[in-house]
Write a structure and sequence with these properties.
By secondary structure, the protein is an alpha/beta fold. The protein has two domains: 213 residues, DHBP synthase (Alpha-Beta Complex), CATH 3.90.870; 85 residues, Threonylcarbamoyl-AMP synthase, C-terminal domain (Rossmann fold, 3-Layer(aba) Sandwich), CATH 3.40.50. It contains ten helices and 15 strands. Strands 1-8-2-3-7-4-6-5-9-10-11 form an eleven-stranded mixed β-sheet, with helices on both faces. A hairpin with a 6-residue loop joins strand 9 and strand 10. Helix 1 runs parallel beside helix 5. The radius of gyration is 19 Å and the shape is globular. Bound molecules: adenosine monophosphate and magnesium ion (MG).
Length: 315
């Protein structure tokens, strides 16, 4: 299959309207979308990615009002979060309506919904005239794509169209909050830190690592975000082991930076998050054998960043 590249949201949306799949930029990472109501189109997403069918897809909308079609009801706490963070990198899990095929939700009776805050994504979604089911646009298990080139690296020849945009701003996925219980719970840390969620909704809870999140959010069980290189986590830069085929990424420099093949010192946790997947892919192209990655303080965006680092290291 030839993969068509375009910068036109309308042209990309015409593929969705014809029941095909398209990769598109958002503020978090690139997504691979299909009309959420068309089962055959949604099935093509799982095929193109090699995604396990027990991993549900997030449904993306251009306008917050569209959530009403996808959800059986919108609990007050969900409404509070949607009002505070949409458009933006927040996914709310809601009881699903009959409009959502069970393939989208991997058989769950809930649906993840997000209204992205990204001008190109919004123009695309509006032009699709449909809710768009979209996981990240990478082959399953690989680092999420933060550029259209990364999408092409993984899915070129496997999907009909890529909507080209710039490099994504956040570089990490959305924060997923389960709003189906009395107390909303963060299932996956992401681009919106818990502290910000708690400002809007003080009673919000967090699923501890190894807690119920894996049962409630099947995607968090799967191997994820992994480059081909082995990822080694270090608490202090001094623990990073240098060699000609090792790379290093962290907030502070390793002891002998010149002994590494590639070194990226991020000036902030935000910059580290923005660069992480991009760096992983660059290391793969340079055939690094090991990536030493520094863990960051476990607060703010640091929780989501450490979560991705640990999952990449577990792969
Ligand atoms: P991805 O789009 O590849 O970043 O992954 C989507 C994430 O959202 C995965 O961790 C899924 O498990 C999670 N997710 C999507 N829909 C639901 C749902 N209905 N209930 C719980 N988690 C969900
Ligand atoms: Mg993904």
């Amino acid at each position: 299959m030839r993969t068509h590249l375009t910068t036109s949201p309308d042209e990309a949306a015409s593929y969705i309207r014809r029941g095909r799949i398209v990769a598109f930029p958002t503020e978090t990472v690139y997504g691979l979308g299909a009309d959420a109501r068309r089962v055959a189109a949604v099935r093509s997403i799982f095929d193109a990615k090699g995604r396990p069918s027990d991993n549900p897809l997030i449904v993306h909308i251009a306008d917050p009002a569209q959530a009403a079609e996808l959800a059986a009801c919108i609990p007050p706490a969900a409404r509070t979060l949607m009002d505070a963070f949409w458009p933006g990198p927040l996914t709310v899990i809601l009881p699903k309506s009959d409009a959502v095929p069970s393939l989208v939700t991997a058989g769950l009776d809930t649906v993840g919904v997000r209204c992205p805050g990204h001008a190109v994504a919004t123009a695309f979604l509006r032009s699709c005239q449909a809710p768009v089911a979209a996981p990240s646009a990478n082959r399953s298990g690989r680092p999420s794509p933060t550029t259209w080139e990364a999408v092409r690296e993984d899915l070129g020849g496997r999907i009909p169209c890529i909507l080209k945009g710039g490099r994504t701003e956040a570089g990490l996925e959305s924060t997923v909050v389960d709003c189906t219980e009395a107390v909303p719970v963060v299932l996956r840390p992401g681009a919106i830190p818990e502290e910000a969620l708690a400002d809007a909704l003080p009673e919000i809870g967090v699923e501890p690592p190894g807690g119920d999140a894996a049962a409630k959010s099947p995607g968090t069980r799967h191997r994820h975000y992994a480059p081909r290189a082995r990822v080694t986590l270090v608490a202090e830069p001094g623990e990073a082991v240098a060699s000609a085929d090792a790379a290093y990424i962290g907030l502070r420099a390793p002891d002998e930076p010149e002994s590494f093949a590639t070194v990226r010192i991020a000036p902030s946790v935000e910059a580290y998050a923005h660069d992480l997947f991009h760096f992983f892919r660059a290391c793969d192209r340079e055939e690094a054998a090991v990536i030493c990655a520094q863990l960051v303080p476990e607060d703010g965006l640091g929780r989501a960043l450490n979560d991705r680092l640990r999952r990449a290291a577990a792969g």
